[in-house]
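User: Before I run my own analysis I want an independent prediction to cross-check against. Here's the chain; please return only the C-alpha cells and, at the end, one sentence I can use as a sanity check.
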Amino acid sequence: MIVCSCNVISDHVVRRAVDDPDASVARVSCLFGHLGCRPQCGRCAPTLRRLLRESSADGATTCAAALDDVSTEFGTPSPLAAE
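Assistant: C-alpha cells:
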C-alpha cells in the first residue's frame, strides 16, 4: 500500500528500512533521509509514525529517540505529544 503519495513510498519500503541493521530509522525524518527524499505535504507523517511504532514493537532494533514530529514542520500538533 502506498503511504506517501508525494514520494511514492509503500508500507513495504518502510518496513524494509526499519529492518535494515545499517539504517537508524526510528524517526520519520530519518526514514526520509534514508530513502533519499524529503517530506512534501506531510499527510503521510501520522501513518509513517504508526508504521515505525509497529515495526519497533515487532522487535526491530531502532535507536531510543522519540518518534519524529514532522507535523510541526507543517504547523499541526503531533498526536504523540499527548502520549
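Sanity check: Residues 2-73 form one domain.
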